[in-house]
Amino acid sequence: SQQGEEDPQALSIQEGENATMNCSYKTSINNLQWYRQNSGRGLVHLILIRSNEREKHSGRLRVTLDTSKKSSSLLITASRAADTASYFCAISNAGGTSYGKLTFGQGTILTVHP
Amino acid sequence: GAGVSQSPSNKVTEKGKDVELRCDPISGHTALYWYRQSLGQGLEFLIYFQGNSAPDKSGLPSDRFSAERTGGSVSTLTIQRTQQEDSAVYLCASRPGGGRLETQYFGPGTRLLVL
Predict the structure, then answer these.
(1) Is the pLDDT of residue A41 over 60?
(2) Please, are residues B106 and B93 in contact by the beta-carbon 8 Å criterion?
(3) N or C, fewer C-beta in 10 Å, chain B?
(4) Under an 8 Å CB criterion, which residues of A touch B?
């Protein structure tokens, strides 16, 4: 399967703490994206990291990518209760004809307690 | 500007009935995707449209599923003779063009329940 695998499946932390989620994958990629989902509905794009990038920041988000290990991590610093959501990594595969088709991991459920 | 919209938000149907789900992508976006999210399978790719090219239907789970995109804009996903295992949230996404590096913008989804 080309599906990304995420860990942990669930993460519970206190407000102000940092949250780290990991994603591993099996294929060559064009890019890896992280999405957030609230209440099982629409996905919100958080950040995209290209295969030739190693680290990217956006506000309180930091994403790393290690293509040699086929893994990525998402760090949310100084978490807030509003960060409570499910987080998914999504892989855009290299090659093939479905440009941009995303293969999603199973997600990490993050709960931030006030 | 307006984001991706989907209708209906929720759909309850009886087993064996046909349903149509609609997606309005962001104006000007040439690429459109359908995904399905269910408890047992997570988020799965269903079908991809890019401009006037033949769609990639490799993710459609059976021949009961079909989709079309009229005029390069609105898309309709049709499920014929619905089964209970079709119950899921159906998500549509669009992105601007043919490049491989661009972000996908998701709609709010249609929650389908087949009784």
Answers:
(1) yes
(2) yes
(3) N
(4) 3, 30-31, 33, 35, 40-45, 48, 50, 88, 90, 92, 97-107
